[in-house]
Amino acid sequence: MDSQMKTIYDSVIARDPNQPEFHQAVEEVLDSLSPVIQEHPEFLPVVESMVEAERIIQFRVPWFDDSGQLHVNRGFRVQMNGAIGPYKGGLRFHPSVNQSIMKFLAFEQVFKNSLTGLPMGGGKGGSDFNPKGKTDAEVLRFCQSFMMELWRHIGADLDVPAGDIGVGGREVGYLFGMYKKLANEFTGVLTGKGRSYGGSLIRPEATGYGLVYFAREMLATKGKSFEGSTVAISGSGNVAQFACEKVLDLGGVPVTMSDSGGWIYDPAGIDRDKLAWIMDLKNNRRGRISEYADNFDGVTYSKSEPEPSLNGLWDHDVDVALPCATQNEINGKEAQMLVKNGVIAVAEGANMPCTPEAVEVFLENGILFAPGKASNAGGVATSGLEMSQNSLRLSWTRDEVDQRLESIMVEIHKTASETAERYGMPGNYVAGANIAGFLKVAEAMTAQGMI
Ligand code: NDP
Ligand code: 2IT
């Protein structure tokens, strides 16, 4: 990082010293921007401004459990940057949620949304509520209480939330119902809605499918494909499930999946029937991935080790790795395991699943590496398509949305590659994505008077 960027980075740390995830996300972007600032010194103030959120809303979320006991959670919405469109980004319900995690996710979202080519600013929100073990009625009451405050800060032309960890179709439905009641209008204020009330076909599949479309483009640059390739996937939620499905469509062999308890390794491959079983386990029965090993032969299950122990999920002979669970799930040592085992490509389905050390290991070893802001952008891109359909009061066919998603992912791959090349870092998707995402927002902020 050059001295100008270091000054900005130091001021970010001095302002909010207890936000390590936000620092990490900012550092990765600042690391990439020096060549742009050399060419466009007028954009330096833009960088200074972008690291400060336009607005952060934090609120109390009181709710009663089934036994009538009161619980109080904390809710957030970070409206990071609205220069190129309404704030857009998911809601995360997970006990780890705090302002640092919300800001890192909102910051990443600004660049990601810019890369999609669609007019969306960046935002993120959520709560430290833990949906695990809660009844449907408890989740409903929580969502209603959460929306009781959030509704006044969002709107179809202002800020459009969606899902993320712990927020799927069920939660989006409950949130949407409460918004509609409070605002007294039916509008596309959330994406990831159910089909019957304005949701887009392919939005559930979009992040996972988009990830695999992106990884397919990366592999093609080396004359490789998914056909016959073994693939390590982490997570077993929305992104992981549909990444697995698309890998199967393209002839690949997924061999791992995980949840917060541990991971399974299935050397015979997770085929379509097994994936359907996992989808039922996770989406309907809300069970644990360990049950997979009890149900299918030849499978090993290993519990996750607490830090700093290595997570053996990444210690298998695979061609492609798709981390799809959460931030910082591949550290430098795990990256070295993947390299040692001959991995060709690593594409992030989750947001920031690879630590800076891991990214360095991949880049130093010439491994194709895609940062989440490029490779997982298919989810928010399809949210953008849902917004368009809602505005048009139309709904497109499955094929139409899938084709648009695929062409957006191909375009993001092309933009990231060409930008990296243009700035003298061929093959570096991290630099390419950061620079290309930045330039559009920087131009818009400058044109609008830097407000
Ligand atoms: P889900 O809640 O559907 O699934 C999350 C999965 O990751 C679960 O298997 C979960 O296990 C596991 N997981 C979550 N937190 C941890 C943790 N701290 N340690 C270990 N495992 C963990 O979420 P999504 O699939 O939607 O999101 C996964 C990632 O993808 C996130 O980083 C999210 O930000 C990112 N993303 C999501 C998009 C979307 O459209 N949904 C779009 C772009 C990125 P368990 O069930 O045990 O908690
Ligand atoms: O991280 C992400 O891009 C998401 N969770 C999806 C956001 C969205 O608005 O669809």
Could you walk me through the main structural features you see in this protein, from its secondary elements to its overall organization?
- This protein is an alpha/beta fold and 451 residues long.
- The strands form 2 sheets. The protein has a 7-stranded mixed sheet, with helices on both faces. A 5-stranded mixed sheet has the order 1-2-4-3-5.
- 48% of the residues lie in helices and 16% in strands.
- It has 2 domains: 3-186, Leucine Dehydrogenase, chain A, domain 1 (Rossmann fold, 3-Layer(aba) Sandwich), CATH 3.40.50.10860; 206-366, 3-Layer(aba) Sandwich (Rossmann fold).
- The chain is globular and about 60 Å long.
- A hairpin with a 2-residue loop joins strand 7 and strand 8 (262-265).
- It has 16 helices and 12 strands.
- The structure holds NADPH dihydro-nicotinamide-adenine-dinucleotide phosphate and (2Z)-2-iminopentanedioic acid.
